[in-house]
Fold these 2 entries.
Entry 1:
Amino acid sequence: MPDQATFDALERSALQLRYDLLEMVGVGKAGHLGGSSSLAEVVAVLYFHKLRFNRDDPRDPTRDRFLLSKGHAVLIQYAALCELGWFPRTELQRVKSLEGLLQGHPDMATPGIEAVTGSLGQGLSIGVGMARAFRLDRKPNRVYVAMGDGELSEGQLWEAAMSASRFKLDNLVGIVDCNKLQASGPTRDVFDIPDIGKKWDAFGWNVLEVDGHDVRQIVGALDAAEGVKGRPTLIVANTVKGKCFSFAEHNAAFHNGILTNELYATAKADLDRYAARLAGRREERRS
């Protein structure tokens, strides 16, 4: 298990990703603030602790693969790729523009993006194909796929889940961002899927459940998944949609909402307060 300094660094990384996210959403244009922010800690742990890759070559064939099946949340992935230096920070100001590199859903023209996703339910199928290919080629690469809980209503996803179990793909890890909200409201009201963990267990997966905003728990689950043999692992990450943005938390309106100048200022102040709390906790541990 990593030391406390590592966990502190991961918390700071997740916070920086949210600052970058806010910069990309900006004022006056629609942006997926809610579902991107709920994944900040998961993405921070993956990119700055778990994934194996070559920082000098995003296409190094020995790299692990991360697929964002809920592609509408790609802004949080862009934030991580930017922090890795894989494209200039100036691109954050040009998101979803014709002249910009970063589009509203993942595109393989962007360094670090592994597949075009966003048509919900397809990402796990791609991940199964990658994991199966690595297994056939006897390569050690691992594959990680992040899905939304609303996305679980897609039938193709469950076909992929069965396939992963059938082929014993223990090099595959699925992560469900369980923030309990989707574009049109609470998932329980739109298409209720109770007992998510039990369903994946019934499909033959090793199932773990974590607080998706606790970097220590996320690291522990990802480490544990590497020790599982003969079946894939599914991590249910319980999260808050819009985490750290007071007006967006638990609010479906900010699945793809528009920020006014006032809301932008509130969001910035929210992040500054959260940064101060993190710094305060670190100082308490030192004293």
Note: The longest helix spans residues 261-286.
Entry 2:
Amino acid sequence: MENDPRLLVHAYVDGELDPAHALELERQLARDPALTAERERIDALRQVIKERLPPVPVPLVLARRIEAAVGASRTPVRPFSVPPSWRALAASVIVAAGLASSATWFEMRPAPAEATADMVVASHLRALMAPQPIDVVSSDRHTVKPWFSGRVTEAPRVVDLSQEGFPLIGGRVDVIGRTPVPTLVYRRRQHLISLMALPSSQSPIEIPSERTIAGYHIVTWIEDGVTYWAVSDVAMPDLESFVRAFRETPV
């Protein structure tokens, strides 16, 4: 765990680190944008889970079965009562292990389309709130595309759409589902359009082509093994025009 600070981010977000380790991780977060992005991704995922999976009351029958397995009782414990036997302790360990395994499965299972869309919008919002929404500032595609080399697995397709009314202003790297992905940033009047290029293997099998989340429009399509996510607060017809121009313009 000490060799990979990303593993500490989960404990930090859950408030499980002692003050010394929490302070050290905060220093690393201040120095490492990728680590900060990981923390923000976890926060976004927690929010999605909170909104889409509200707590469900435990059925009374299941609660009693768990209590019986760990040797618990609803009746008050009298003084000098006999502590739970080793069998009860073993049962409690088994129950805890089962719950942990379920949590691990939920954490590692492929993200549904809704969760991916929420993370895409969250990344766009973080960029809008940052001092600069891009990491490399340039309208030249021959400058932007090489910048991604070494930062992501594969540089995205970059086209010049200034003649169509969508000038390129630069690019950045976002983290979607623990995967660094390249994001191209275009402008439409006073609005920004984020175009993220995810490997198709990292994308949900069923992807709606259009949707709106919290006032932000999303258009999605798959091309040459890459899933593109275009997100912006421009009107949907403008975003559709951008997507059409991007897909039809040769490199």
Note: Residues 1-109 form one domain.
